[in-house]
Amino acid sequence: MEDRLDLTRLPRPFDPERGAEALAHVPGLSGDRAALIAGTGGSSPYLAGLIAREADWLTGALETPLTALSAEGARLQALDPLDPAIGPELRRGKRRMALIVALADLGGAWPLEKVTGALTDFADLATGVALRAALAAELKRGKLPGMGPEDLETGCGLVMMAMGKMGAGELNYSSDIDLIALYDEERFEDAGEARPALIRAVRKMATLLSEPTGEGYVFRTDLRLRPDPSVTPVCVGMEAAERYYESLGRTWERAAYIKARPCAGDLDRGQRFLDGLRPFVWRRHLDYAAIQDAHAVRLAIRDSKGYHGPLSLPGHDMKLGRGGIREIEFFAQFHQLIAGGRDPSLRLRATVPALHQLSVAGWLPSDAASELVDHYRAHREVEHRVQMINDAQTHKLPANGEGLARLAALMGRDEAELRGDLTRRLEAVHEITEAFFAPETPGPGKAQAAEVPDPQELAREMGVDKGVLARWQHYPALASTRSREIFGRLRPQLLASLARAAKPEEALLAFDGFLKGLPAGVQLFSLFEANPQLIDLIGDICGTVPELALFLSRNSGVLDAVIGGDFFAPWPGNEALAAELGRVLEHEADYEARLDAARRWQKEWHFRIGVHHLRGLIRPEEAGAEYAGLAEAVLRGIWPEVQADFARRHGPPPGRGAVVMAMGSMGAGRLNARSDLDLIVIYDAAGQESSDGRRPLPARVYYARLTQALVTALSAPMAQGRLYEVDMRLRPSGNQGPVATSLTSYRDYQQATAWTWEHLALTRARVVAGPGELSREVMAFIDSVIAPGRDKGAVLRQVAEMRARILAAKGAGAPWEVKVGPGRNQEIELIAQAGGLIAGDPEGWIGDGLRLAVAQGWMHEDERDLLASTYRLLWNVGQVGKLLSDRVLDPEAIGEGGRALLLRDTGAESLEELRQAFELATRSAGDAITEILAREADADAGSEDAEGRPGRTT
């Protein structure tokens, strides 16, 4: 960027004589630059004084302002920290910076961000110089044990946190600076001994910056944003500060830390402190309760300042008044607090970028964001010029006509036009922000609530004892006054939504269970109030899937996903899903945090699939594919994390690494809402005997323990619950074999030892995570095992024997059992797998296996159609059943809503019709399978030995 002042506007001299006097101090100027000096000096007594005092310096600074500022900063940085002239020199630097920045601003040469950035940069520099001087004095007195001059660059354990506008790089022209002084207790053997010296240093630094002298002042310094300022010293230990924020931190302090950054002292340690505060500032769930906190702060400001009633320009506060700067800042900050825990892209310090990003992320309409940005820039320019007139830390417009006329002249604008523009902008900001914090007209939820009957009347209509409503007040979710207030506004709409269920009394009792299980209510009720559509969703869930309502009471954070913008969008695909989880995990600092993040993410997507199924957006078979896709994304995301954590202790995986292979329904890409995962881990140590790490392990032990770590990561209950139950019994030799199998052993086992049922299972095997080359090699081997095909007589005889063993062990199953029993899906899957194995086709699922059986000539087309239609019916029944409960389906126990869902997904007109169809289909399928196996019972009987092992088959 070129270092020159390209003027685009000019101030007018309100007092032409004063303007001429100012210009006389800088002879040789002409044209626009002369007009800039005359207009500035003639309208701002303060700047006229600076022009007179710094005329010699100003002449060169007008030519290359950035170079002049940089040289001034270097001059101050080079001062000896013990030089008594530091105070006067800082004040001289402040005068020069204030003068050239004001001229660049008034002349339109620098945009707002460059102006506020230059002001902030000098504040950072001045704070650093003053802190170094104060600490050097303590070092000289020997009051900082263990510290020497070399520690001055890292603040001798101190860090200054820039807060507010300084933290955001948005200082106004006559701004004070908000600082929090923190010290690192770990830098000292005895922090208590050093503490008094650190406190003195902070006080001296503040005095050096803020004390008015004949040279002026540098910055008024405010240290009151520290934890509990009424009882804590000006310098607080980091550990104590962390404990305070974790236990007592308030919403306004969370908002303040959005803009916080280390500006002087030990910058690296300061950033680590901020990183540790992320859970305090950025809540995991959408934090709509922050809106009410923000509104309470706004009302408190208005009450304390008397800012009520209609807008009046004379004396109006451009910062705190109606439609002012603070309204826009609060609007951005509290939107960030609501959603920034879930979306790290919103964690921006500056107001304008935050508004833009909120629009990009879908939290603000683009036109509203653009309008607020425009008003914010205009408001800040007015604020700066109000302060430039007399270097006053004020945000109020002049209280009389003369003052407004002077302001208009300094801005180079017509007074009447300025008045009109200010009024329009202030009213526009107020209209946008007030609608967010405290809408004057009822929102969608309140409008609906006004139309419903009295809650007790609704309860009577729903056929529920009014005692159900009465006991709610004793639940933990309604323990606080605030939660009761919010819920009182929500209750009519909630009851109206429940009353629309097929069986309102069932829905209300399910909601009672949901409410009873909530540990707290303010956050969730605030979420409902801000998003009334969630109330109808809760009504649907309570009226149809009471167990899902119970799940929600313990995992209400998953509702955040509903308002994330694309909750009801089509399934994104497995690749996009895996990539999204990868991005989520990238933002977490350690292994445990990543596992918890994966659990939160999985719960949201799992909930989304269930809601899509519940509302008919996807069919049961689509839900099955999506549940499997979600599980695959989790495995692809978690497996590298497990390996990386394990490698920190035992070194990288020996050899070529390991793959995770999915079997059973997971391998086939079809799961239900409660499926566990059938997995096998296969590794190739490639001749490497052990790992190379701090605690090396033999390769076999390494991969066994790594596999156990994966199972723990997936199935161990943590703060966010568990991901999946894991079943590894399909590995070679089942529970008797090692939990991880070497590729060589796996090949040998499958080629020489495996049972026929294990080769049947291979038709659904699929590698889902691990190194690409090894994955392809494993899958190529599995294909080679299946591709030669098998003798149909031998395979079907083994299927018949397996069928008989299963029936003997598990019986015929419950009336609505969909998996185990004659004609149920397990038997149909065995027949379909036999079709793939006999044909030597490793691809495909149920329909393909049955089609191959027909092509091979051992199944008739009508038998295939019967088995396929039975499988679909039972799959649909099972998918609905697992969504509703973890037990075998009992239509009498799932409620009216559940029965309606079951009929919808099976296409039956009534429960009796479905029962008859279920019984007929399973009986017919069982008979067909018996017939198929009997037809082929004696075919090629000698192709396998009596054990059913294929090692000696031809």
UniProtKB/TrEMBL annotation:
Domain PII-uridylyltransferase/Glutamine-synthetase adenylyltransferase: residue ranges: 307-437
The protein, known as: Glutamate-ammonia-ligase adenylyltransferase
NCBIfam families per record: PRK14108.1 (NF010706)
Domain Glutamate-ammonia ligase adenylyltransferase repeated intervals: 42-274, 539-775
Source domain of life: Bacteria
Organism: Pseudooceanicola antarcticus
PANTHER family (UniProt xref): BIFUNCTIONAL GLUTAMINE SYNTHETASE ADENYLYLTRANSFERASE_ADENYLYL-REMOVING ENZYME, GLUTAMINE SYNTHETASE ADENYLYLTRANSFERASE
Signal sequence, renumbered to the chain: none
GO molecular function: [glutamate-ammonia-ligase] adenylyltransferase activity; ATP binding; ligase activity
GO cellular component, one term: cytosol
GO biological-process terms attached to the record: regulation of glutamine family amino acid metabolic process
Family matches, as InterPro entries: GlnE (IPR023057), GlnE_rpt_dom (IPR005190), NT_sf (IPR043519), PII_UdlTrfase/GS_AdlTrfase (IPR013546)
Record bears the keyword Nucleotide-binding: yes
SUPFAM superfamilies reported for this sequence: Nucleotidyltransferase, Nucleotidyltransferase substrate binding subunit/domain
Disordered: annotated segments: 935-954
Keyword annotations of the record: ATP-binding, Ligase, Magnesium, Multifunctional enzyme, Nucleotide-binding, Nucleotidyltransferase, Transferase
